[in-house]
Fold this sequence. Notes:
globular; about 180 residues; single chain; alpha/beta; 7 helices
Amino acid sequence: MKQVVIASTNPVKINAVKAALAQIFADDAFEFIGAKSESGVSDQPMSMAETKCGAVNRIRYCRQHYPAADFYVAIEAGVERFDYGAATCAYIVISDNVRLSVGRSAELPIPLHIFEQLSPNIELGTVLDKLFQTENIKQKGGAMSLLTHGNASRQGVYQQAVILAMAPFLQPDLFL
């Protein structure tokens, strides 16, 4: 049985990793551990650089606290204002203690008036909960679901990103 440490206790992130690995390794058995971990960045990362740093830090934290795992997976969501507008996406970092794979989820445009309400201490989920009168949307469909009328979900987008970030582990001879 392979042990996978997911650097989060958020059910959306845990379920995305479970579904991705079940799809990739249909014949394997896994033990999944959702672990609180330290990102070392703001509650709401405000740049892609900060977002990636948070995911890498979560991997480091989990490797220190769960040294025997087969895989470590971190999903860190963040926002940034680009020249074309504001958007949110997540960095996916996966490690097996030998290699480190870094990937990103699809980007979701977010309205500028929503982005302008965010800060390192005020998360996108909090602003969206207030605007859409939802509760804890980040542990449900997320901004992805709210802004696409349910045609995309946070879990689905993260699941795809985890599958893509697994490429170096699935084709190790090509990623030397």
